[in-house]
From TrEMBL:
This is Solute carrier family 12 member 7-like. The keyword Hydrolase does not apply. It is a multi-pass membrane protein. Gene3D superfamilies: Amino acid/polyamine transporter I (1.20.1740.10). It comes from Coilia grayii (Gray's grenadier anchovy). It comes from the Eukaryota.
Length: 1076
């Protein structure tokens, strides 16, 4: 059918709204939230404090929806907020708030303006290209060879490109606030993984600062001002000490610059970027120049060994001057005496001195000698391949090793992987600036991937060009000892080596400053999220939000890396932390893709879960390839942080993938569990605990939860529940408050499980619904635990009695076990230790074996561990008690249960006058409660009188029963005597009937039941009154509901005089087996 709509122009409505007066405008301003989408400290997700919702509504055309306008805003308001939403950078909101609180005028923040090139591409290029390219790439090419170096570069670049693809998918799946990898991982994998990997990323960034500072000091002391060394090279450890002293001073200076103001670092960023670009251009220009005119870089060889260039000026053994042969300075280095005839170093005598060009150029064909690597131990002499030489024993040249170029460390392929990998890190620079980008979802994937492609091309080309232009002995000369202590890559550059030396110096210094700027802010973000409690102090800073305390911690950790004093040893540590971070970025993308959650809708479409798993596998492989022991240490650190956050951290719900993965795993497990019933060997009590709440909605019997903890020990299912009377509409808030109180009590009593409070019109229906529907699928309860209703005699209209008996009936109908605890408040707490004593089991009837299993489960807990188990069973008239005891002992042996066994014989005694009197009082009370509508006060008075009378009568009867011994063995004479006593008892009963006619009107079934309860109680009290816990078979309720109160009276008599009692009723199936 057609529907008529009224079109309202937006301009008119806005205008009319503006004409309503100043008062309405003020209300509108107050009701309109800020567009910043500010988040409170430790906020879980920007979605929860969404700036899109505007609660203000003053229209009349949509009156049908006005009652829900606070939670469901008008579409026009929503679209307006979406169009004007701005994602501020990290820290801007906090700075504005702090400045406003101090009375300073609020800073006006302009919207993000950066595009892909300036905001993502250039920062990534600047962070990726750095110290390893300038100081170690030539040495890696010389040591690993061109093929080995290409393999290293390919593995590392493949790792970063796969990680960038996964990161792009995550970054384009909605708005990513500033926070970079930490935000993406924590919101994708949860606070535990996010905190662990975030701290690893923080440590990686901090050690990156150490790496860049060490590179800066190495360039300064080796290539710029070597005279500034404080310790002489002859002293042991002099180079390391120089690095430590100058590195500490440089760290203090950089930390001071960062503390004074980040704006100065940001202003210098363009200068540092220019240094990187100019240095790269100088390298390519130098390579092109070698085609025209190779540089003059002489290198002196003795045989095939490379010599250090200091200590001599001519690469000759002797020189002719005026027809006189004179030894050169080189001769004096290898000969103790300048005399020509004097015996010199044997290798020096047998081999010639040759001078070669260190950089012969592209057309020289030197690339054929550099294809393969040359690894070796520490202090191995660097030798030229295919150069003729006469070898000599090593022991004859020991004193002159100091004149050769030597390996400073032992080299292998795995070590080079760990050293090179930091040169491909920095791919997160774009995602860290997501708040400054015009369109982060477009700029981050494009800029990051293009930066990786560009830098990968640079690395691949540099490996090939270095191997094609530079001699192998020069490539393997890490510190330029054979070329007069000059930077090898600087010798290749054009127009001057100083272009690359100065450029690399400022590039490393700038990268160090940026690391010291970014790492404290990352730590501050983690601290403000509140997931790591002991880091909360680092969430505070200066008045404008600068992370002062985080900066101090960062400087302290950075100093540890500087004290290592070796770039080659710090680089693998840095690689581990970044590889761990990249691994979890790939894992986050793979998990989200496989889960196919509805919110997973990345705009970047060129991803697949197989690529993410490949990237994750590659990261893990590189970790163990680089250094297996470093990898294990980092994994242990991450694991400890994970468990700490899981144990002590704040609970966060970020809609993470791990939670979704858990839900999927739980779903598949539940479906599988439902396919087949639980086998007897796997059966354990899955508890539904029915709690009672007081008037304040707090748990009335906390010891019920303690007993649950002791019985379950964290294993299996536990559902703690309660029922509130009323309607959910009026008591929904009470139900939620009750659940909070129950969860708090469960936490206090260390009860692991689920909590559920329902609202029902009456308690009986509520308990019935819980028994029927609690649990899910195969994870449903099979045992109900409840407390004995001690006040059932004083309850109005016998509601308490009816609720209890109906619960017993429904558990029986549902084939569930039932545990009823008497005096639950007297049960031991979790911190108590029962020293000795017994747990007594009275096995009257067999209902599945739960009675045997419960003591075993309780003794697993430290509260009951020292208690012994005793099992009593009752022998009837025709039973052989001796054989019963042997059979029971054998049965306990097959069940693998340690328990003392005892058989108690109960002879068929006459029904005592006490039993008749007890039954008479019981039936009279039932009739009175049915026929008379007594007030609560009168009923309680009557019940108290009946209770006092019964107590006095039972005390006298117990005294008489205690004088008659309990016989343990039946004989023929005893059997005849017992039959005679039965005949006499019948005649005696007839005589009693003749004396008290009212006894003859009693229900004989009730008389027999009361007789059984009295006799069993006498025996149990005589044997188990001192036991810590008595487990007893619970009789079933009567089929007719008219006898509910009588049933309660029978149970009351049965457990009278015992402190801690657990009535046990089986579920109708075998729960224990003797088979393996």
């Amino acid at each position: 059918m057609p529907t008529n709509f009224t079109v309202v122009p937006v301009e008119d409505s806005v205008t009319s709204g503006q004409e309503e007066g100043a008062e309405g405008d003020e209300d509108t301003e107050e009701a309109t939230p800020e567009l910043s989408g500010r988040r409170s400290k430790g906020d879980e997700s920007p979605i929860e404090s969404s700036p899109f919702f505007n609660s203000y509504y003053d229209g009349k055309n949509m009156a049908l929806f006005e009652e829900e306008i606070d939670s469901t805003p008008m579409v026009s308001s929503l679209l307006n907020k979406l169009a004007n939403y701005t994602n501020l950078t990290q820290g801007v909101i906090e700075h504005e708030e702090d400045e406003n609180d101090d009375g300073v005028k609020r800073v006006t923040y302009k919207g993000p303006q950066m595009g892909t090139f300036i905001g993502v591409y250039l920062p990534c290029v600047q962070n990726i290209l750095g110290v390893i390219l300038f100081l170690r790439l030539t040495w890696i090419v010389g040591t690993a060879g061109i093929l080995g170096s290409l393999a290293i570069v390919f593995m590392c670049c493949a790792c970063t490109i796969l990680t960038a693809i996964s990161m792009s998918a995550i970054a384009t799946n909605g708005v990513v606030p500033a926070g970079g990898a930490y935000y993406m991982i924590s919101r994708s994998l949860g606070p535990e993984f996010g905190g662990a990997v975030g701290l690893c990323f923080y440590l990686g960034t901090t050690f990156a600062g150490s790496l860049y500072i060490l590179g800066t000091i190495e360039i300064l002391l080796t290539y710029i001002v070597p005279e500034a060394k404080l310790f002489s090279s002859e002293q042991p450890g002099a180079d390391e000490n120089n690095m430590r002293v100058y590195g500490t001073c440089c760290l203090a200076l950089m930390a001071l610059v960062v503390f004074v103001g980040v704006k100065y670092v940001n202003k210098l960023a363009l200068v540092f970027l220019s240094c990187v670009v100019l240095s790269i251009m100088a390298i390519y220009a130098g390579v092109i120049k070698t085609l025209i005119e190779p540089p003059n870089v002489p290198v002196c060889l003795l045989g095939n060994r490379s010599l250090q260039s200091h200590g001599f000026d001519l690469c000759q053994k002797e020189v002719d001057e005026n027809n006189v042969t004179r030894p050169t300075e080189l001769w004096k280095l290898f000969c103790p005496n300048s005399s020509i005839e004097f015996s010199c170093d044997e290798y020096f005598i047998l081999n010639n001195v040759t001078q070669i060009q260190g950089i012969p150029g592209l057309l020289s064909g030197v690339i054929s000698d550099n294809w393969w690597g040359e690894y070796g131990p520490s202090a191995m002499v660097v030798e030229k391949r295919n150069q003729p030489s006469v070898p000599v024993p090593e022991d004859k040249a020991e004193g002159h090793h100091g004149h050769y170029v030597l390996n400073d460390i032992a080299t292998c392929f795995t070590l080079l992987v760990g050293i090179f990998f930091p040169s491909v890190t920095g791919i997160m620079a774009g995602s860290n600036r997501s708040g400054d980008l015009k369109d982060a979802q477009k700029s981050i994937p494009t800029g990051t991937i293009m930066a990786i492609v560009t830098t990968s091309f640079i690395y691949f080309s540099c490996v090939l060009l270095f191997g094609a232009c530079i001699e192998g002995v020069v490539l393997r000369d890490k510190f330029g000892d054979s070329v007069e202590k000059q930077l090898v890559i600087g010798l290749l550059s054009w127009p001057s080596p100083w272009v690359l030396v100065i450029g690399s110096f400022f590039s490393c210094a700038g990268a160090g400053l940026q690391s010291l700027t970014g790492a404290p802010r990352l730590l501050q973000a983690i601290a403000r999220d509140g997931i790591v409690p002991f880091l909360q102090v680092f969430g505070h800073g200066k008045y404008n939000g600068e992370p002062t305390w985080a900066l101090l911690l960062t400087a302290g950790i950075c100093e540890i890396g500087i004290l290592i004093a070796s770039l080659d040893f710090v680089a693998p540590i840095l690689s581990m932390f970044f590889l761990m971070c990249y691994l979890f970025v790939n894992l986050a993308c793979a998990v989200q893709t496989l889960l196919r959650t509805p919110n997973w809708r990345p705009r970047f479409k060129f991803y697949h879960w197989t690529l993410s798993f490949l990237g994750m596998s590659l990261c893990l492989s590189l970790m163990f390839i680089s250094s297996w022991y470093y990898a294990l240490v980092v994994m242990v650190i991450a694991g400890c942080i994970y468990k700490y956050i899981e144990y002590r951290g704040a609970e966060k719900e970020w809609g993470d993938g791990i939670r979704g993965l858990s839900l999927n795993a739980a779903y598949y497990a539940l479906v599988k569990l439902e396919d087949a019933p639980t086998h007897t060997k796997n059966w354990r009590p899955q508890l539904l605990v029915l709690l009672k709440l007081d008037t304040d909605l707090a748990v009335k019997h906390p010891r019920m939860l303690s007993f649950t903890t002791q019985l379950k020990a964290g294993k299996g299912l536990t559902i703690v529940s309660s029922v509130l009377e009323g309607s959910y509409k009026t008591r929904g808030s009470d139900a939620k408050h009750s659940e909070q109180n129950v969860r708090s009590a469960m936490s206090t009593e260390r009860t692991k499980g689920f909590c559920h409070v329902v609202v029902s019109s009456n308690l009986r229906d509520g308990f019935s619904h819980l028994i029927q529907s609690a649990g899910l699928g195969g994870m449903k309860h099979n045992t109900v635990l409840m407390a004995w209703p001690t006040n059932w005699k004083q309850a109005d209209n016998s509601i308490c009695c009816t609720n209890f008996t109906e619960t017993v009936r429904e558990t029986t109908a549902a084939h569930q076990c039932l545990l009823v605890a008497k005096n639950i408040d007297h049960f031991p707490a979790n911190d108590e230790r029962l020293d000795g004593g017994t747990i007594d089991v009275w096995w009257i009837v067999h209902d599945g074996g739960l009675l045997m299993l419960l003591p075993f489960l309780l003794r697993q807990h430290k509260v009951w561990r020292k208690c012994k188990t005793r099992i009593f069973t009752v022998a009837q008239l025709d039973d052989n008690s001796i054989q019963m005891k042997k059979d029971l002992q054998r049965f306990m042996y097959h069940l693998r249960l340690d328990a003392e066994v005892e058989v108690v014989e109960m002879h068929a005694s006459d029904i005592s006058a006490f039993t008749y009197e007890k039954t008479l009082v019981m039936e009279q009370r039932s009739q009175m409660l049915k026929q008379m509508q007594l007030s609560k006060t009168e009923r309680e008075r009557e019940a108290q009188l009946i209770h006092d009378r019964n107590t006095s009568a039972h005390a006298s009867q117990s005294h008489r029963a205690a004088t008659s011994p309990v016989h343990m063995t039946w004989t023929k004479e005893k059997l005849v005597a017992e039959r005679n006593r039965n005949r006499e008892a019948i005649m005696g009963v007839r005589d009693i009937f003749n004396m008290k006619p009212e006894w003859g009107n009693l229900n004989q079934s009730n008389v027999r039941r009361m007789h059984t309860a009295v006799k069993l109680n006498e025996v149990v009290v005589s044997k188990s009154q001192e036991a810590h816990l008595v487990l007893l078979n619970m009789p079933g309720p009567p089929k007719s509901r008219e006898g509910d109160e009588n049933y309660m009276e029978f149970l009351e008599v049965l457990i009278e005089g015992l402190d801690r009692v657990l009535l046990v009723r089986g579920g109708g199936r075998e729960l224990i087996t003797i088979y393996s």
